[in-house]
Write a structure and sequence with these properties.
This protein is of the alpha/beta class. The protein has one domain: Ribonuclease H-like superfamily/Ribonuclease H (Nucleotidyltransferase, domain 5). The chain has three helices and five strands, in the order E-E-E-H-E-H-E-H. The relative contact order is 0.19.
Length: 111
């Protein structure tokens, strides 16, 4: 089971957006990319990269928790479904549901 989220990084050239995935059972964090302009095409590519990395490590996932960010589209869900992974979206205004990812964002911001 995985949890995913986006977070913003204040950089010299402006604000960057990063996407990460955390393996809940193992507490392993994968940073999948940083961009200044995240869009649905970038998110789809990050989903493909996720499966390439997991395939290399000989692991598979059944469930991916994510928030209702507008950048996560049906195209990225289709990439996940094609690999046999179900996606679960958090309810509206319920940030504690994805607590694993939210805690990681807080830790990165604190550092």
């Amino acid at each position: 089971m995985l949890a995913t989220d986006f977070f913003h990084i204040d950089a010299v050239n402006g604000r960057d957006c990063a996407r990460f995935v955390i393996e809940i059972e193992r507490r392993v964090v994968h940073l999948f990319g940083v961009t200044t302009k995240p869009n649905c095409h970038w998110v789809v590519q990050m989903a493909r990269n996720l499966f390439c990395d997991l395939e290399e490590a000989m692991r598979s996932i059944r469930l991916l928790f994510g928030d209702r960010d507008t950048k996560s589209t049906a195209a990225s869900d289709e990439v996940l479904r094609s690999e046999g992974t179900e996606t679960a979206r958090t309810p509206v205004r319920a940030p504690r549901v994805n607590a694993f990812a939210e805690r990681r964002v807080e830790a990165v911001r604190a550092d």
